[in-house]
Amino acid sequence: MGKLSGLRHLFMTLFLHNFASFMVIPAITDVTMAALCPGRDECSLAIYISGFQQAIIGLGSFVMMPLVGNLSDKYGRKALLTVPITLTIFPLAILAYSRTRSFFYAYYILKILTAMFCEGSVHCLSLAYVADNVPEGRRASAFGILSGIGSCAFVCGTLSTRFLSTASTFQVSTAMAMLSAVYMRVFLPDSIINDNLSTPIISEGKSDGVANQNEEPDKKMQVFKTMPSMEDMLALLKSSLTFSQAAIVSFFSNLADVGLHASLLYYLKARFHFNKDQFADLMVITGVAGTISQA
């Protein structure tokens, strides 16, 4: 238990971050409909741009996640966690300020750009942080606790949305996202940095300040060569049958979940005239059921 108690700052950081991210989910459908199709409960444009957003974010995440993992191996988990946790603040701050059409489009574009780096990276880096600091025999328990923290944040975030106005929801979410970034930088100790990588991302000579001009192209090429390419990702999938099977299962599972979530909320809005309060009620029920199943 000593090792797990040492992760309390990571658990609190993840809770605050997920709380901020999840509490806006019940409200974003109403905001999208009001910005694109004011006064209506049906809007094809809202469904199309939401699907396009998810597709672009998914493709961007597929490219960025190996890079994030590679950089975290070199510079540490805390340094890389700082980036997505901080970037999450800016799209939320836009809607906290205003939810008119122009501000919604600004949020929409910024959300795509930031989510390509942020979507899933906080969870993945948290798992890597746990793996660095917990013995192999206790990692399964730590991963389970991490998942439970996420489910608890989902329940608390969506439940709080039930009692807040739309404007207050985004303001509180922005404040919680800022608090998670500050808390992480102040309290979370850095994880292990691997100084024994066979191919460092940045060569030691690059920071010398004075370098031979003939060697500069080689140094730049070395930086790019250490970045994971599409061939590297395919080779990783082929290196382990278990890993490739897990990746396939994860792909189809997330495909179904995201597709259902993206369409279900708009269907409930059009068919039963749901608003953020009813969405929050449904999400609390599913979140509580998920938390109980993980206990």
UniProtKB/TrEMBL annotation:
Coiled coil: none annotated. GO terms for cellular component: membrane. The lineage of its organism: Eukaryota, Viridiplantae, Streptophyta, Embryophyta, Tracheophyta. InterPro entries: MFS, MFS_dom, MFS_trans_sf. Its main location: membrane. This is Major facilitator superfamily (MFS) profile domain-containing protein. Residues 1-192 form the Major facilitator superfamily (MFS) profile domain. It is a multi-pass membrane protein. The chain crosses the membrane at residues 7-25, 45-67, 79-98, 104-130, 142-164. It is found in: Membrane.
